[in-house]
Amino acid sequence: MxxxxxxxxxxxxxxxxxxxxxxxxxxxxxxYKVSTYDNYSFNSEAxxxxxxxxxxxxxxxxxxxxxxxxxVKSVLDKILPQISIDTNVGIxxxxxxxxxxxxxxCRSSELLVPLNKNNxxxxxxxxxxxxxxxxxxxxxxxxxAVKNDLxxxxxxKHIILLTDGGENCDESPCDYAIExxxxxxxxxxxVIAFDVQDSEDLDQLKCVADVTSGKFIxxxxxxxLVHSMENLILPHKQVEAMLLNxxx
Length: 248
Hints:
Blueprint: H1 2-32, E1 48-54, E2 62-63, E3 66-67, H2 68-79, E4 88-94, H3 102-105, E5 109-116, H4 120-127, H5 138-149, E6 157-163, H6 173-181, E7 187-194, H7 199-211, E8 216-219, H8 222-233, H9 235-247
Parallel strand pairs: 1-4, 1-6, 6-7, 7-8
Antiparallel strand pairs: 2-3, 4-5
Helix pairs in contact: 2-8, 6-7
């Protein structure tokens, strides 16, 4: 009888150890599981990405021996081909034309490439010959992006605003973002402030990101610009790097 009792205890102990092993293994797998989402993965539903990029006069200034505009073009050349071909991508630029009259200068904003899939080549070609010339109509550009560029897009809409300065067309991008969020919840705006030094301009730009549940990043060097863009568009690579470091 004792032998049977001990045998049952051993069997129960083995079953208990097997159960514990499965629980631990499940937790480990969950911890290190990498989602198989597409390259562009702001969130699981986002598939519409619109760049709104500054081509105003100040983008022709030199930073680290290269013009800021050339650095922006270079990082877009690198990043765009890595975005999933299933993502709708487009680009709007502003400040790319020179106008004598302030009204026209503050309407210098154009959708160069409408949202579409597999669009990286079209975007790279469209910006290759552009030169920085005009003013910085950020608010007007965001209004046009929301009202026209993203109007027929289904699901979440994501804007990446890249600028080297604040609004200079007597509008407030912060005020606009606040009003926008009273009506819309399907738009997020990330902001990259590229070599922006003015504190008031930084506050306005940060407000745009904060109010729309976007990210605000200051990039004051070329390396920071590249890292910022990768952080916003290719987050899966950071996850993979973390896992590789964990296993090393």
